[in-house]
Specification:
It contains three helices and four strands, in the order H-E-H-E-H-E-E. The relative contact order is 0.22. It is globular, with a radius of gyration of 13 Å. It is of the alpha+beta class and 100 residues long.
Length: 100
């Protein structure tokens, strides 16, 4: 799934007021962290994740691994925060950050 610049701009605007729902720390991507990321993406579609994993290269590797394993796309990365998107087949209007 590729996003146009207009799509990314809209998603960044939606994600601006979101708080990180998951923190990936020094232990990296464990099965429980991946399960929580998967649950959050299923519920909210657009989420922020805090990465406390080290230098810039380590963060990029973690983002690439999340994207590969969960089928998500990184919309924006600023510092230690990444904005992730994975559209749901049937989004819940009460939970989805895209439908608010």
């Amino acid at each position: 799934m590729t996003l146009s610049n207009e799509d990314k701009k809209h998603l960044r605007r939606l994600g601006h007021n979101l708080n990180p729902v998951v923190t990936v720390a020094g232990n990296g991507l464990s099965e429980s962290v991946l399960a929580e990321l998967d649950r959050a993406l299923n519920d909210h579609e657009l989420i922020k994740v805090k990465l406390a994993v080290g230098d810039k290269e380590a963060k990029q590797l973690v983002i690439a691994e999340i994207a590969e394993k969960l089928g998500a796309e990184a919309v924006q990365t600023i510092g230690h925060i990444v904005l992730l998107l994975r559209r749901a087949d049937k989004p819940n209007p009460h939970l989805s950050n895209l439908l608010r």
